[in-house]
Write a structure and sequence with these properties.
By secondary structure, this protein is mainly alpha-helical. It has a domain of 54 residues. It contains two helices and no strands.
């Protein structure tokens, strides 16, 4: 996951100050922060969805294994 700390944010802000016109700085910072937080939220949501999907797959595998064990026990007793 992307980890941006205070020093990185300060460097980005300095680059923005030197790269853009003063009247566009506020608009550009807002756009950058919106994109950054939207991306961060998307990554977190995707991660949560994958975790949930993996839990479902694990449960299906557990059920399948349990059925196989029951079949094995029946065959062993016959």
């Amino acid at each position: 996951m992307i980890q941006i700390g205070i020093p990185e944010l300060l460097i980005l802000i300095l680059v923005i100050f030197f790269a853009f016109k003063p009247e566009d700085i506020q608009k550009n910072i807002k756009q950058f922060l919106k994109i950054f937080f939207d991306t961060k939220k998307f990554v977190a949501d995707t991660k949560d969805d994958l975790k949930q999907q993996l839990k479902i797959d694990e449960l299906k595998q557990d059920l399948h294994n349990e059925e196989k064990m029951k079949e094995f026990e029946r065959d062993k007793n016959v």
